[in-house]
Write a structure and sequence with these properties.
By secondary structure, this protein is an alpha/beta fold. Helix 10 runs parallel beside helix 13. The chain is 38% helix and 23% strand. It has a single domain, classed as pyruvate-formate lyase- activating enzyme. The protein has 13 helices and 18 strands. Strands 4-5-9-10-11-13-14-18 form an eight-stranded mixed β-sheet. Strands 2-1-3-8-6 form a five-stranded mixed β-sheet, with helices on one face. The chain has a three-stranded antiparallel β-sheet with strand order 15-17-16. The structure holds iron/sulfur cluster. The site of iron/sulfur cluster has 10 residues, from strand 7. Iron/sulfur cluster binds next to strand 7.
Length: 336
C-alpha cells in the first residue's frame, strides 16, 4: 500500500496545542505541502461548494481538527458500543461508501487530535457497566489507513490491552498492518478483514488493498496473536456475482492459515446504495460501473436503496452455502 501524501492540509488552529498536531504540521511543512488554517473541520466553505466532479480530488486533502462530540453509541452487531474515534472519512473512493450519505463530497479524511478524551469515555463506560463489552473503533473511517499517518490504532490497541473488561474491534480494507504486529495487545483486540471478489475490488473499491494482500494481512495479524474475523461486505449482486463470490471463497479458503480458520467468525452485509453516491459517481467517475439498479433494488429509508427480498433472500442462501462449503469451521456472527 502506497503511503498517503496529501495535496494540501486544512487545520483547526487548536491542533497546534496537541503534540501529535504539532508533529503532523511540522511533517507536512517540511514536505512543502500547503497548510491552510480553518475555523472548524465540518464547515470548510471553500470545500463545501465544490462540484461533484471534484470528489476524488478532495479525497487527496487531509483535514486536522478535534472531535467535538464523543458519545458512545450502543450497537448490536460487531460490537456493544461504537466509539467515535480519531478519524472520519477516508482517502479511498469505494463507489458505495456509506460515508458519502453523511458527508456527501466532503468524505475526505479528517483526523482528530483529542484521542485521550475519546479513550476516557470508554474508561467511564467500562466503570459504569462492570461487564465485559466490545468497543468498535473507526465506524466512520478505516483505522488501519489512519494508523499509517498517526499511529493511533497501535496506540489504541495498547491502551485497550491494559484495560479489564474490554475488547476493541475494527474492520479494514487495507493491508498496512506491519506496525500493529508488535503492539502489546494482550489478547484484547480483534480485526475484521473486509473482503470482496478481486473483480469487485478493482471495479468498485478504488484505492483499497487487493484481496490477496488483505488475506496476507489477516494471516500476519493472526500470527501476532490477534483474533480475526471476515467481514464480507458489501455483497454486490452484479452480473456474474455467484461465480465471482464462489471464486473469492475458494481463494480465501486456500490462502487463510488453517489455525486462523478454526477461530474465524464471519459477518455478511448486503450493499446499501445511496442516491448521493449515484450522483457523485456519475459526475466524478462517469466510466465506473453503475451500482443503482431499480429493477433489483427497493428504497431503504430516505435516499437509499437495497436489494429487493426476492433477489436478496436467495442470494443469502447462496452465500450461506459458500460459507458452509469453503469455511465450515467459521461461525456466522450476522447477515444483514
Ligand atoms: S475503505 Fe471504507 S471508508 Fe474508505 S471509501 Fe471504502 S467504504 Fe468508504
Amino acid at each position: 500500500m502506497k503511503s498517503f501524501i496529501p495535496l494540501r492540509v486544512y487545520y483547526e488552529e487548536v491542533v497546534e496545542e496537541y503534540e501529535q498536531g504539532k508533529e503532523l504540521l511540522e511533517r507536512y511543512k517540511k514536505m512543502d505541502i500547503p497548510l491552510i488554517p480553518i475555523n472548524a473541520h465540518h464547515k470548510i466553505e471553500e470545500l463545501r461548494c465544490r462540484p461533484n466532479k471534484e470528489f476524488t480530488k478532495m479525497k487527496k486533502y487531509l483535514i486536522l481538527g478535534t472531535r467535538k462530540t464523543v458519545n458512545l453509541t450502543p450497537n448490536d452487531k460487531s460490537a456493544d458500543f461504537i466509539v467515535p474515534f480519531t478519524s472520519s472519512g477516508c482517502t479511498a473512493s469505494c463507489l458505495y461508501c456509506y460515508l458519502v450519505c453523511n458527508f456527501n463530497t466532503n468524505s475526505y479524511l479528517r483526523i482528530f487530535m483529542n484521542r485521550d478524551e475519546m479513550l476516557g469515555k470508554v474508561k467511564k463506560m467500562i466503570k459504569k457497566s462492570g461487564e465485559h463489552k466490545v468497543y468498535e473503533l473507526g465506524c466512520n473511517s478505516d483505522m488501519v489507513l489512519e494508523n499509517t499517518i498517526t499511529g493511533n490504532l497501535k496506540w489504541a490497541i495498547e491502551q485497550f490491552g491494559k484495560l479489564e473488561n474490554a475488547t476493541v474491534t475494527f474492520a479494514t480494507k487495507f493491508d498496512a498492518v506491519d506496525d500493529l504486529l508488535t503492539a502489546d495487545h494482550n489478547g484484547h483486540t480483534q480485526m475484521r478483514i473486509s473482503v470482496n471478489p478481486q473483480e469487485i475490488i478493482r471495479k468498485v473499491e478504488f484505492g483499497t488493498s487487493r484481496l490477496k494482500d488483505r488475506i496476507a494481512a489477516a494471516n500476519k495479524m493472526f500470527e501476532a496473536g490477534y483474533r480475526i474475523g471476515l467481514n464480507i461486505a458489501p455483497i454486490i449482486l452484479e452480473e456474474g456475482w455467484e461465480e465471482m463470490y464462489e471464486n473469492m471463497f475458494r481463494e480465501v479458503k486456500e490462502l487463510l492459515l488453517p489455525e486462523l480458520k478454526e477461530q474465524l467468525f464471519v459477518e455478511v452485509i448486503f450493499m446499501t446504495y445511496g442516491l448521493p453516491n449515484f450522483y457523485i459517481n456519475t459526475e466524478c467517475m462517469p466510466n465506473a460501473v453503475n451500482l443503482l439498479d431499480k429493477e433489483k433494488m427497493k428504497p431503504k429509508g430516505p435516499g437509499k436503496y437495497t436489494y429487493r427480498n426476492e433477489i436478496r433472500n436467495p442470494a443469502e442462501d447462496v452465500i450461506r452455502g459458500f460459507i458452509g462449503k469453503y469455511l465450515p469451521e467459521a461461525s456466522i456472527s450476522y447477515i444483514v
